[in-house]
Amino acid sequence: MVVGDVTTGTEVLVIGAGPGGYVAAIRAAQEGLDTTLVEKDAYGGACLNRGCIPSKALITGSGLAHEAGNAEFMGVHADPAVDMGKMIEWKDGVVDRLTGGVEKLCKANGVNLIEGTASFVGEDTVRVAHGGDGQGSETLSFEHAVVATGSRPIQIPGFEFAEDHVWSSADALDADTVPDRLGIVGGGYIGMELATTYAKLGADVTVVEMLDDILDPYEDDVKRIVRERAAELGVEFNFGEGASEWSEAPDGGYLLHTETEDSEESTYGVDKILVAVGRQPVTDGLDVANAGIETDDRGFIETDDRTRTAVEHIHAVGDVAGDPMLAHAASNEGIVAAEVIAGEPAALDRQAVPAAVFTDPEIGTVGMTEAEAEDAGFDPVVGEMPFNASGRAMTTGHTEGFARIVADEETGFVLGGQIVGPEASELIAEVALAVEMGATLEDVAATVHTHPTLAEAVMEAAENARGQAIHTLNR
Amino acid sequence: MVVGDVTTGTEVLVIGAGPGGYVAAIRAAQEGLDTTLVEKDAYGGACLNRGCIPSKALITGSGLAHEAGNAEFMGVHADPAVDMGKMIEWKDGVVDRLTGGVEKLCKANGVNLIEGTASFVGEDTVRVAHGGDGQGSETLSFEHAVVATGSRPIQIPGFEFAEDHVWSSADALDADTVPDRLGIVGGGYIGMELATTYAKLGADVTVVEMLDDILDPYEDDVKRIVRERAAELGVEFNFGEGASEWSEAPDGGYLLHTETEDSEESTYGVDKILVAVGRQPVTDGLDVANAGIETDDRGFIETDDRTRTAVEHIHAVGDVAGDPMLAHAASNEGIVAAEVIAGEPAALDRQAVPAAVFTDPEIGTVGMTEAEAEDAGFDPVVGEMPFNASGRAMTTGHTEGFARIVADEETGFVLGGQIVGPEASELIAEVALAVEMGATLEDVAATVHTHPTLAEAVMEAAENARGQAIHTLNR
Amino acid sequence: DAEPDTPAGRTFAPPSARRLARELGVDVAAVDGSGPGGRVTEADVRAHAEGDAGAADAGGPDDGPEPRPAPTPTDTGSDGRKSAVSKRGADDGSADAPATPA
Ligand SMILES: Cc1cc2nc3c(=O)[nH]c(=O)nc-3n(C[C@H](O)[C@H](O)[C@H](O)COP(=O)(O)OP(=O)(O)OC[C@H]3O[C@@H](n4cnc5c(N)ncnc54)[C@H](O)[C@@H]3O)c2cc1C
Ligand SMILES: Cc1cc2nc3c(=O)[nH]c(=O)nc-3n(C[C@H](O)[C@H](O)[C@H](O)COP(=O)(O)OP(=O)(O)OC[C@H]3O[C@@H](n4cnc5c(N)ncnc54)[C@H](O)[C@@H]3O)c2cc1C
Description:
heterotrimer; A: 475 residues; alpha/beta; FAD/NAD(P)-binding domain; Enolase-like, domain 1; 7-stranded mixed β-sheet; 5-stranded parallel β-sheet; 13 helices; 24 strands; 26% strand; globular; C: 102 residues; mainly alpha; 0% strand; binds flavin-adenine dinucleotide
């Protein structure tokens, strides 16, 4: 590091230590570049501190309690009690270990760490304001920068997160008591993961969603399975309604008021209101305009397939750079940014970014749906295997859902897959590799799959698409 | 079907309806061949009736009870009680649904089903003896045959399965009470799966094993993780000891007597003795010699890479044809047999057959170990990711084990993988596809993996092998 | 040529290429692979079978068919098979030169 009078210099400056930023910083350092990572809050970003990780911990805890309490059919009798404070403590411990790990990994790879809030002063300089009174600030010059400042939950008018009873997803992941009645505004993946979690923890959950179904981007048969299971768990759905305001209920608690497009009003008695209607990029205070970068009308920074912004030596990755707003996409972009900066032939040429929803059952998808394949001009062929025909699924007691594989009829190339069912988030990895490798249905079908596993369903789906499944009837 | 005077004819005769036979029969029928399947006992063979499926059901039930009873650390308090009779009933229900499904699938694909015991009369004829008194027999002529008669547990002298307190694995999967003390002879995968199951159900389990460790074919570091966890669960290991006899104990129960190579004797007080020392092929009564087929000195039928025996139009698949004696290998061989008979260019050219052990944690392996790769003349490079560095593993509460990937240094081709840890049986599917496809480390590493999943560990292992893992320190 | 020697007579080829080789009566081990590390593709097998073993070689990764079917299915090469990575390598050095660190 070149140390000047006032200004410290670094080859690569990374702003934000979420899964986009810390991964970019580590890879840049591995490439032998002098790298500095600035984080204003906590290592690991939204994902580790109030996103992916804490949500999955609570999903495990609530899931185990629920499963154990409903296993008489297999001869297991239990009446589990959940100590929510203890569950949160465990979750916090997991988060601490992971965020501590990120810090250690950064250091071990030689990344310089600075705590503070960065804002651009010019095209090759930032000011970093250190947190706390009288902590001062420093100026840092860079040759390349990676903006990885992430996103935050969108607030809706009338529902300030500041209110004790209005929860953001972060609050829902940090509550040490379970509300009797939880109203959730938004039936997207975050809303649905938390609806499932709280329903299993014993809350009466009411979901209010403007659209006419949950999990907007997913196919109808995928949504249906998750929606029906959530309903079984006691989640009530109110579609076509937008949250308009809240008020105090005369008998304690609150009323969540909603309105349809036709101005029909409803109210729901609740004790907490979780607003989970999406996330917006974090660029405020960053003064990107000082670096010559513009944001689009939603605040995202536009990038090319090498993660470069309009200013070539400044990259943007992760949520702040727009869709798909997923942790693993952020990390993948972070790696590409670092490698491009290092002069390597990297690009965002991934064929497909898988995605998972950790509801009950889980969803795992990658690549194209049948409709998307048609739109793209393919002549798709589709194969399915329902988990209720899977021996492994039966032995786990979880037989809802199916594995589906989409391929090009002529060439057999696997174009995508949709899995809803037990361990769908894990099973999709094989399909992702198939898509990325340019594997054919035959390749997947001819790969021997361990018996008894859920992964056999992927093989069976491939066989089904070829009209020769063994364990399902072929169409 | 050509019906003659006495003799019925069929194009393809399949003997035995286990995962080798029923799959062969269904595929042969799908190929348009007139196919007859003879089974003397129960559809689904050992696997569905007293192997893979029942064992996995009890592993789920006992695992859930144990997990729920040990989850205070995550705030879940439960004191589960197991109703073993009910668990067995559930298991039986799963088995019934699956075996019923196999029968239905056979019929739906047009397979002719015959119940009875087949034995060869000549090179193209069998006699089928129908079970029960006065049920008679019939003669069947065939153009092609597939022998899929499977295997049965090996008995050791002095331990007759007929004795009430001497269990075969089938008995252990059908017991409606949990013995207080269970002695297990044999620390192979069947012995270890049942040791884990019964330990979690509350039995005091003692394993006696002639070798000096469990799970003979696996690598030391893989074995160690499973052995130590089993010990934590209370399983006691006695290595280097062979079971010599049993006797009645003065105070009730039995004494299991063992002897070392040096004739040192020990005794263990037990209530039941499970003998799980391996499986032997079933060819007795089949009179293969009448068809001109010989068995090797262990009783297995030798086959070529098209599953053909010395008599070209008679194939043998599954356990009766020798290693690897796994259900999915049997099914794969069954498909190859049917396709070869149908004149298709099929062969047993699979690069690798994955295998799983459903202990706690699970093991999943495929292809070559580092040592095997070296022996084969490769210059192997190895990468690992420990699950205690995996965010997903932490959120499940299961962080034991690792994912390892073995590749050829020069070309990067993935040669194999060894995974021990949560869901290892599922995770190995992606590695199997990589091996089968001729994927490189870079292919696996560049495939975006969903966060947070256990499958990320496979990607990280690949990156680690390339010296650029993000979440572990590279060697 | 480019194909490295693989020990143990192992040929790296996906199942579909191996099966095609059997169908065409080609010894897959004798086929020159054009994929990464010498991986044998279906196109390589076909080229070999047509007695045109050089064709697959001559091409190399850059000249192969698109790694996946193009959105217009009609002009899709039916045998194109490349990994994400081979494509990534192949793409590069093109018009768009990557930035180099100072
Ligand atoms: C409840 C929930 C569950 C989720 N579950 C999943 C899931 O299961 N899987 C998945 O893939 N994704 C999930 N996500 C989304 C995932 O968290 C994000 O996609 C991911 O965190 C984006 O990573 P990032 O690096 O772009 O940004 P972030 O993780 O948001 O990190 C940005 C970092 O930059 C810092 N920062 C911002 N501005 C500055 C500045 N000016 N100076 C210094 N530092 C700054 C922030 O403090 C923050 O640490 C979930 C999100 C939520 C809310
Ligand atoms: C406890 C246990 C757990 C196991 N777990 C697993 C596991 O998790 N994964 C795995 O891959 N493998 C597992 N196995 C092994 C697996 O069960 C076998 O590899 C598999 O069943 C072999 O299939 P097969 O078709 O060759 O024979 P089998 O399943 O043994 O079927 C043979 C069939 O042939 C019939 N038969 C025999 N002789 C005749 C005759 N003369 N006429 C008519 N019918 C006849 C028998 O009745 C039987 O139904 C396990 C085995 C055991 C015992």
